[in-house]
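Homework help board

Subject: predicted structure for assignment chain

Our instructor gave us this sequence and asked us to write out the predicted structure in token form, then describe one feature. I got the tokens but I'm not sure how to describe them. Can anyone check?
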Amino acid sequence: MEAIDLIHCVPEKLAEEANLDQLLQTVKSIEKWEERHAEVLDYVYRQRLIRLLVRRSSEDDLSALNEHLECMLHPRRLEAMQHLSRPYSDRWAAYKDILESRLASLRSRAPQQVLKMAHVEQILDLLLSGRASKQADIKEAFRLRPANLTRVLNIMEANDLIERRTEGREKLIRPGPGIERIRSALETDTPKTRRWAYCLSRGSCL
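My token output:
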């Protein structure tokens, strides 16, 4: 796949025509980053994001741009861009946050259904038992990639199963009010759900 000449291209045309695989291949071929490289890419990402949101695009299209931006935010690539005058990576991280929020909204289901998703019950069990209160604790417990953990937590937060806040550099997580709404679903005769129901009845974890 031929790399794109980001220095001499027309950004408006590139935003309409280039595919993400071609853009990523181009990025991988850059030996020394120049301001123009990042400016053009930033324009393309911004226009793509606006188009995806305005047109209410499919989950697949949103995921494709989200995964592309994850590649762009690789530590090695960020290090290669440190000398640029503007914090492009901060903007790209913000674009990624918007995409992940939109994806979480699309994937959001009834809380009872969300409980069936991978890692959701285990994460709630950690929180309700007091064995975790930080996002880093959960990441370490399940060895999840940051993007996968963020996706799961976004869906849980969209269904009020958790609440998140930031204190300094720490990302803190606590059980959310949505758990109370599915309390009856938790009160079945299994050790785990009895423990959840007990914690809920004390009111100390909400």
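Reply (TA_rk): Your tokens look well-formed. For the description, you could write something like this. Confidence is low (pLDDT under 50) at residues 200-206. That's the kind of observation they're looking for.
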